[in-house]
Write a structure and sequence with these properties.
The structure holds two protein chains of two kinds.
Chain A lengths: L1 H7 L10 H16 L6 E14 L4 E7 L7 E5 L3 E8 L8 E3 L23 E7 L4 E6 L11 E7 L10 E10 L4 H10 L11 H11 L1 H13 L14 E4 L8 E4 L6 E7 L6 E4 L5 E6 L2 E8 L1 E4 L4 E6 L7 E7 L5 E7 L137 E10 L4 E4 L10 E4 L3 E8 L5 E5 L4 E3 L9 E2 L1 E4 L4 E7 L4 E7 L2 H6 L2 E7 L3 H13 L4
Parallel strand pairs in A: 1-4, 3-8, 9-12, 11-19, 20-23, 22-30
Antiparallel strand pairs in A: 1-2, 4-6, 5-7, 7-8, 9-10, 12-17, 13-16, 13-18, 14-15, 14-17, 18-19, 20-21, 23-28, 24-27, 24-29, 25-26, 25-28, 29-30
Helix pairs in contact in A: 1-2, 4-5
Chain B lengths: L2 H23 L9 E2 L7 E8 L2 E3 L2 E4 L4 E8 L5 E6 L1 H16 L3 E2 L2 E2 L1 H5 L15 E4 L4 E7 L6 E4 L11 E6 L1
Parallel strand pairs in B: 2-5, 4-12
Antiparallel strand pairs in B: 1-10, 2-3, 5-10, 6-9, 6-11, 7-8, 11-12
Helix pairs in contact in B: 1-2
The chains are: A alpha+beta, B alpha+beta.
Pfam family, one (chain B): Cupredoxin_1
InterPro entries (chain B): Cu-binding_ET (IPR050845), Cupredoxin (IPR008972), EfeO_Cupredoxin (IPR028096)
Protein name (chain B): Copper-binding protein
Chain lengths: ~625, ~180
Amino acid sequence: MQGLVKAFQPSSNEVQLGIKQMKIRLLTGLLTLLMPAMVMAGEYGLTVDRVKIDTGDFVKEGIGYNGASPGPVMRFKEGENVRINVTNNLDEMTSIHWHGLILPFDQDGVPGISFPGIKPGETFTYEFPIQQAGTYWFHSHSGFQEPDGAYGAIVIEPEGREPFRYDREYVVQLTDKHPHSGDRIMRNLKMMSDYYNREQQTVGEFFSDVSKNGLMNTVSDRMAWGSMRMMKADVEDIHGFTGLINGKGPSQNWTGIFEPGERIRLRFINSSAMTYFDIRIPGLDMTVVQADGNNVQPVSVDEFRIGVAETYDVIVRPKDEQAYTIFAESMGRSGYARATLAPEEGMEAAVPQLREAARLTMADMGGMPGMDHGSMAGMDHGNMDMGSSEGVSGMDHSNMGSMDHSNMKGMDHSNMKGMDHSDMSGMDHGSMAMGKGGPSDPFYAKGSGLVPTAANGGKFLSYSDLKAQDPLYEDREPTREIELRLTGNMERYTWSINGVKYEDADPIRLKYGERVRFKFVNETMMTHPMHLHGMWSILDVGAGQWNPIKHTVSVNPGTTVYMETEVDEPGQWAFHCHLSYHAAAGMFRKVIVEGGPESTQAKTGVVAEDGGEA
Amino acid sequence: MNVSKLLVAGVAFSMSAGAFAAGAHGGGHGASSGEPGKASEVARTITVEMYDNYYEPEEITVKPGETVRFVVENKGSLVHEFNIGTPAMHESHQKEMMMMVEHGVIQGGKLNHDMMNMDMGNGHSMKHDDPNSVLLEPGQSKEVVWKFSDKGNIEFACNVPGHYQSGMYGDVNFE
């Protein structure tokens, strides 16, 4: 019966389905009616097409699904079995990866690891059970088809009720659309790694630093950066894009309609090739209820940073009859995406100015091995932009002079006599608001120049705020630890893990049933969103059993981040940095899960023989 | 100056303000939520179950002036509150609850009772003992006897940070 209902009532986002697909869906509906014993199954269709993408700033050829980029929102229901027929209308190989979905490895859509790929003109049928709920996305895992437009959203309705309430919902899918094709960008980066970096320090800046900081300090600072083969401004490798929300550029202004007083669930998905976004909606609190599709204990924030490939679901409640701007600034402030929530189409609110770009500090290089500290002898560390009151020494109270005491007006100190502080051992000083003493976040290097702050001075989401709403796994000791150093050479645009790029690396071998602790040590100056396919990444935020589960874990420069994985899916999987050009340059591994149900082991051999490119 | 002293004093101040506000709202004017009820006047009992993060039921209907005994059960795995008030009262209470989280009084599924009972001077504490509310750990059950006043915009709500905002509230309808 479910199948029939589905066939007659495609959700609004599926209207782009071709007529042929509709017929198939109708047929499936009838079949389902005739065979009531069948498990609930949904039949879906996607065509992979050459499309035109209009950003408002430029129009270019790209790749999309069902004739558009982004593709449709695929709406599944937890517990159903889906069959998705993917027809390749391109003249090259393609593939679709269901990002964040837990499924058999041969349905995961990575050419050379899960399957050989989909040939031109061929229709490949994916078939897998939906075992989870939440917001996810899908994209091509072939070449640079994803940066070229081959992505879409996945929304899975849970079997039971959601642990939160809302009156309406919107997918808010971001990307960083560049006028150049992915192939061309990669060629240019390989030739000249700073080809797309407009933020480089100039000769003029050198002389202004000289007058400010003195010649020796400026020279030694530049030399220190030069010896690391990096440029100080490399928060982002790729500038010159137009930020899109649901396929619309800032001037095209995608708009979501609401009635004042309604609760709206916004499903943010960052489908960018390379760009992290800092997202805010001036005038509205956002209550984060999901991260990477998994429910988290709700936390209200003014702003949050979304890494490439991550998703965050937030609930907002606009009470006034006015428009609100959804503003997404790129982390490096080289561009932005913009959309609007409004009571009616055509209303708009002010669009904020881009804030000044963050600058990496030497602290962001903390993990760099082989740094020649000897050459830094003449450096005056007093000029380093330490940015944080926590500095190097942890809780140094002498730095707290700028704490904001303004909220404490009217405090009657006369009552404080005889206060017994002996009982305060349980107080968690770690969570004390530090006022304006400088931003700090345990997921950024101490003294980092990258720590984000909210534009309105309010709360900026940290990974350490993410706590699982309902832990999926029992907390247990990991069976072993695997260290993965994130490595690279910016000037040659090589990116690797433990200094070895994908083509030259042995697979990571895991054993079915073990719980592995991954230690990411970021030895580069870039932020890397690490994505393990097929199994959950339990991010260690220090919350024990409440640690959140994610599919993409962002690792900031100069930091070490731990995640644990319950190895509960057999087969072989991809594990890589989700920045498109870093993955392509070699920051990528194959993971082989040894053991597990026997039927799956036979299948891995077949795929391995077929080969193909990842 | 020891910073923690300042912050604790800040909490003491804020909690006393909260208690005062609740008292002032007991007066019975249009925006009030009612007053503590007498057990002898209880007309009926309503069981409210708290899950992560929602109530069952999500709305109740009462008569103006009716005294109701609420049996509140926390069936979730996080700390939850059942608090009867106007949206404005909930909003101001949320600031106090945020303080309680920041000071480790509410820790996910646990309450730090030592912290709650700590004498903060002048008889103030973070006990959370206002008569219009209960704050429960998982598995706990407590009663609230409440006499509703006139019709008004009354909600029962959980003001643990983020819970109200994500939808953990219920409507009180008047017959």
